[in-house]
Amino acid sequence: MLSKVKHSATRAARKAGMVSAGALCVLVGAGFLTGAAWIFLATAYDTLIAASVIGAAYAGIGLLLVGLAGSDEPEHRPAPEPDPKAAPASADAPPLLQAFLFGLQAGASSDRR
């Protein structure tokens, strides 16, 4: 029992570390791309246009993310599984169907890990 908790904690810590490192890399990359965009736009046009384009891009991305975060998604609930014990295995059923229902019932009642 304790080993499962340790394994779960280790996996969660590893995942958190990877996500943090990935987010840091994305932020550093965004900084360098912003600098490159600034240099390109300031050279091609003017510093005022460069600032306007980069500011509008960040504002647009921010508004898009706020809009996505505020949207309510319907909760997806899995459909309830039919009770295999409730399925009647009539004498009229073909042997293949009876075997399938027997296997379905055996699988549902087995101890799953």
UniProtKB/TrEMBL annotation:
Residues 72-91 are annotated as: Disordered. Residues 73-84 have a biased composition (Basic and acidic residues). It comes from the Bacteria. InterPro entries: Phage_holin_3_6. It holds the Pfam family Phage_holin_3_6. This is Uncharacterized protein. The chain crosses the membrane at residues 21-41, 47-68.
